Amino acid sequence: MIIKNLAVRIQDKVILSGLDLEIPAGKTVALMGPNGSGKSTLANVLMGHPAYHVEKGTIQWKRKNIVALEPWQRARMGFFLSFQYPYEIPGVNFYEFLLASFKSIHGQERTGIEAFDKRLSKALKDLKLPVRFLSRDLNSGFSGGEKKKAEILQLKILQPSLAILDETDSGLDIDALRLIAKNIREMKSPKIGFLIITHYQRLLNYIKPDIVHVMINGKIVKTGGPALVKKLEKEGYSWLSVFPAKAGNQKEKK
Amino acid sequence: MLEKRLLALKQFRQQKLPLWGADLSGIDFDDITYYWRSNEKASNDWSDVPGYIKKTFDRLGIPEAERKFLAGVGAQYESEMVYHHMREEWTKLGVVFCDMSSAPRLYPDLVRQYYGTIIPGDDNKFAALNTAAWSGGSFIYVPKGVQVALPLQAYFRINAPSIGQFERTLIIVDEGASVHYIEGCTAPMYSKKSLHAAVVELIALKNAKIRYTTIQNWSNNVINLVTKRAVAEEGALVEWVDGNLGSKITMKYPAVILKGKHSKADVLSIAFAGKGQHQDTGAKVIHLAPFTASAIRSKSISKDGGRASYRGLVYVAPQADHCKIKVSCDALLLDEVSRTDTYPEMKIHNDQSTVEHEASVSKISEEQLFYLQSRGLKPQDAERMIVAGFLEVFAKELPLEYAIELNRLIALEMEGAIA
Question: How far is CA A70 from CA A67, A98, A166, B169, B226, in A?
Fold first, then answer.
């Protein structure tokens, strides 16, 4: 996936401008940056959130510009967004939702459904979730950790070609973080690209990124390899010369 | 019976249309056929039922359901029962399930003792009309201590233009006995208006249990005005499970009179108001005895300018100590042009009672839709899934094939099609 010169606003507020970013197949790209830098906006824009308006630029997927496509069309092309705050949908059974989602993306064939059941029972084990988890309402009454596990469960079942993980590490205790990181690591393959959005080093200690970008005020201000993660963890974001004065106090809190 | 009909006719003429609720001024009482006989005689063998009627029922999935597990089926086609059947085991235990029209002849004592005792002929204009003109409906008697484990079912169908359907149902459940009765209602589309004014009376004697489930899906020109009321004696439980789809106007407020101590009422209802529809529905519970409990849960959906109103009454008499009452009303608005109102009346004359009341109005959020779409679901499927989730508490109270049918009907409503 290639993003070129992307400009995005919500209502009258410009959030992203002149953004260039590439997520090659099979690679893991980390996107770091302080709060309010536009990382989550990018995640939502990539998935087609209707509240954001793309003013300029292109998002290319397999040589096609997909800016005008609906979220469900993007999902069927192989995009997946693991939400920072997954929405609760009362009364909707998690299993039925998952099956409907799987069918909409991978089709109705019997062989596919068999693969679904197999994948599901394995994924539950891998994430240490009980089978009864499936009979609950979608995200409704889930703890923070359960919500994140449910997102990764969906990721494992739906097997997208591009996985965008928005702050997947937030709200997780250390055991859950390790378990989720292990599950993501095991999914790495030449067929899937990852965009991992995070403030912190901690998730990236378990999932080694190929490329690391730092975003501040809607722009990529620094690009590097895994060593950049260590430097940011030690020194925060303020050393970056392009860091504007008005946001200078937005250091990482940890 | 004739005397009661003539008296009620007089009362019907004297009574005025209600000044509250939906607008009923469009009804022309002289333009209604009050009795229409299908050419077929009542039958209790499925193979005797004529093909075209069977086909209608086939489409409703009845014979299949019957083969599977129905305890009994009564189907009303126009004003008379054409098909009637019940499993032998229940008949042996003395359970009666028959066409209400035959009940005065077959069970004169029971009818004389209970008919019109809960809803007298002069209760309201439409109860009076029903009392004067009724035909068909179900009559059920469950003797002492008999638990009818599987639901008894009846289907009603209006299919001639401008025909009034005034069925009358009377269910008597004797001490310690229990029954679940299910009715489905449906009417095909006609250009002329039809009026449906039914009366349902339930009598739950000491420690009896009655559940009465309705899934109503009238076509969008039917005016549906139903009086449903139950009385619960000591330790009895009455449950109304009431689904209102379709019709032009529905006014229906299933009621329970908690007459004996420790009796309970549970009313669960949904209403779906689409374009040009007004669903004015709710529940009434009258607490007359101490230690009585009631729960009212109402859910409504309004779409395309439809209007759903909750209208309820909870009355607690001075002598009814230690009552527990819980009322919750949730409305879901699917767009900006639709409307919902709540008229929850509470008359509590006893200060030792616990009353809880909750009401909410919600919309489907953009975020919920985005979440589901990001998982590959098209907007209309995502919306339908959220609506089905909203109605889940209702659907899970239904037997499986009814829950499936309800989902199908909701899906049709959501598409704007006329089911």
Answer: 9, 20, 19, 52, 45
